[in-house]
Amino acid sequence: MAKYENINGGYTFEILEECSKDKLNERERYWIQKLHSDIFENGYNIASGGQDGFALSRERHSQAILTEKQVNEIKDKIAKREQTFRAIAEEYNVSPGTITLINKGVNWHDSNRKYPIIENIMNDEISLATRKKNMIFTRQEIQKIRSLRNEGHTYSFIREYFNNKCSLSLISQICLNKIYN
């Protein structure tokens, strides 16, 4: 609230109604909807209220980066496991961390969905790479990756050496001989 106090000229507080503890979530949702306090100009709520509130789309909150439609597309892509989190992030111009938070239900939580959408992200990315008919790296490139690591180069350096065509976790797994043996 303090974050928006100067923007909105301060706050006033009033008791809208009294209710029992077991009705608080329901009544919170009701009043947020009735007063439209989930729209930035009318209030500071960033969710629809209650313990299982759904985070709001750009249309309902001016600071959201993604629309609800985009987030639903992202959730579908995560569930299909056809792309890495990094690839999804690049497609929607957000960080891989944002995709991780959506996967875990921290951001854009939907009480009708089970979280995390996929359990083990790193293994998922590795299995995606190994399932492809054409491996990401040739045998010579895999040897070069391991050679560069043995020379003391960082995973970041190695990834950049290969034009960032995979994640750091994939480079790590190759260097640790967990895949592409």
Strand percent estimate: under 5%
Secondary structure category:
mainly alpha
- Kindly report how far apart the N and C termini lie: 54 Å
Q: Order of helices and strands, N to C?
A: HHHHHHHHH
**Could you give the count of β-strands?**
0
Task: Describe the protein in words.
The chain contains nine helices and no strands. The chain has 181 residues and is mainly α. It has three domains: 63 residues, no CATH class; 55 residues; 55 residues, no CATH class. The N terminus is likely disordered.
Which structural traits does this protein have?
48% helix; mainly alpha; 9 helices; 181 residues; single chain; disordered N terminus
Quick structural summary:
By secondary structure, this protein is mostly helical. It has nine helices and no strands. It has helices spanning 2-8, 24-35, 68-80, 85-92, 96-104, 121-131, 139-150, 155-161, 168-175.
